[in-house]
Each structure stands twice: as structure tokens, then as C-alpha cells.
Backbone:
């Protein structure tokens, strides 16, 4: 079943069109990766799905409902949660306070205690540091907190923008293991990630973006095996 569908989407910043004629689908219960070079439109696409930037034309369907012009805060209430590039935590608030902010949506309030227990089970380091200021955490711990805050919102669709950015290889490995664990809990994931190989190895489906358009799509294994992808992104 398609949880999210984008149909002939166009997105502009002023006169500059950053997403062009883009159509894709995210299957319920799957991990879908968006890959492409810097400036391909990946982050802009996530922002359009979240409702942070408007759509010029085309449609966004979520659970079969047209949400193209639904405000961003209502999309959060529907379960569309984005973990932005750069984490965007509240650095002078502690870990617990940041997590509590994630449970503000009405859909999440009733499950706050249950979700907090789940988050601390997935991220035991955060339980140990729950009274520590977010800004004093390591880069990996901050990324864990950003993901945990998203989980506190009770997502149906969890979108992550460059979760490995700026992290050491061992921490990246840990983050990807955590994403797999989250997926196994039943949450659908849409992933934008600079590490193309890791992203496609983790996911079920993939879409390759260039200049705001989808130029390749299919199973992640097929995309990873493509000569053009191997040459363009993997140096092979």
C-alpha cells in the first residue's frame, strides 16, 4: 500500500524551479531512499512534503488524502515527521525537555510515557543524559536526540535528512543500525543520505534525483548495481 504519493510535483524558490515534474511513491512499512548530488532537490522535496515550503503545482497524497495545501502543523498531526539536516535541537534545554517537545502533537500526548520508554530503550545513552543540556552532547548523541524527538511525535512517516552528516564512521554505523531497528518497529522511513551505498543497502526502494527530477527509480539493489550510479556516486 502506498503511504505517500507525489504526482507531477513542481516546487519553486521565487523564479527558480527546484523540483520539476517529480512523481514517486513511498510504500507503507518500507524504507525508501532519495539519492543525488548536492543541489539535486532532495532537501527541498522533504520540506515540500512537510509543508514547510509551498508546492507550485502537482499533488501530495498521504494515506490517499490530498494534503498538497494542508498546513505543516496539521501534517505533523497526521504523522508526517521530519528530522532536519543539522538536527535543530534546543541547545539550552536538556535532553528530557527536547523529548517532551516532540510529544506536543495531540496524536502523541496520550502515548507520551510509552514512547519515552521506547525511546530510552532504543537510545540508552539519552536515558543516562536526560538532565544534560542538548548543546553539550556529542555530535552522535545530538543526532540520536533529534531522531528520538521525532519518535516522540508518534510518526507514521519518518523523514530523515542527512542523518550521518559530520559524524565519525563508527557513530554512522550505530545510527544506521538504529534506523533499521526503528523500521522493524513498523515505522515507514524516507531517507535522504549522503552515503549512497549505506543508504541503498538499508532501503527497499530508491529514487535518484538530478536537477529536481527523478532520473532513476526501482529496487535499491538494482540502483546500487547500476553502472551509472556506481561511477557517479561510488567512484567505481
Residues:
Amino acid at each position: 500500500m502506498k503511504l505517500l504519493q507525489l504526482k507531477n510535483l513542481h516546487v519553486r524558490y521565487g523564479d527558480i524551479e527546484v523540483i520539476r515534474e517529480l512523481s514517486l511513491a513511498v510504500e507503507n512499512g518500507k524504507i525508501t531512499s532519495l539519492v543525488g548530488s548536492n543541489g539535486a532537490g532532495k532537501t527541498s522535496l522533504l520540506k515540500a512534503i512537510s509543508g514547510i515550503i509551498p508546492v507550485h503545482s502537482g499533488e501530495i497524497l498521504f494515506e490517499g488524502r490530498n494534503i498538497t495545501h494542508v498546513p505543516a502543523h496539521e501534517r505533523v498531526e497526521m504523522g508526517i515527521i521530519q528530522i532536519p539536516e543539522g538536527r535543530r535541537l534546543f541547545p539550552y534545554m536538556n535532553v528530557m525537555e527536547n523529548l517532551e517537545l516532540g510529544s506536543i502533537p495531540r496524536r502523541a500526548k496520550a502515548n507520551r510515557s510509552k514512547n519515552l520508554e521506547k525511546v530510552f530503550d532504543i537510545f540508552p545513552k539519552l536515558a543516562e543524559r536526560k538532565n544534560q543540556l542538548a548543546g553539550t552532547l556529542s555530535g552522535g548523541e545530538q543526532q540520536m536526540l533529534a531522531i528520538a524527538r521525532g519518535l516522540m511525535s508518534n510518526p507514521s512517516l519518518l523523514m530523515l535528512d542527512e542523518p550521518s552528516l559530520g559524524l565519525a564512521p563508527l557513530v554512522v554505523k550505530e545510527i544506521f543500525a538504529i534506523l533499521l531497528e526503528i523500521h522493524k518497529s513498523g515505522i515507514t522511513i524516507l531517507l535522504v543520505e549522503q552515503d549512497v551505498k549505506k543508504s541503498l543497502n538499508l532501503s527497499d526502494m530508491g529514487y535518484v534525483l538530478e536537477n529536481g527530477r527523478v532520473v532513476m527509480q526501482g529496487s535499491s539493489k538494482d540502483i546500487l548495481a547500476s553502472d551509472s550510479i556506481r561511477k557517479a556516486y561510488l567512484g567505481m
The first strand starts at residue 2 and ends at 13. Strands lie at 2-13, 16-27, 31-35, 57-62, 65-66, 80-83, 157-161, 188-192, 205-210, 213-219. The longest helix spans residues 169-184. The two ends are 35 Å apart (CA to CA).
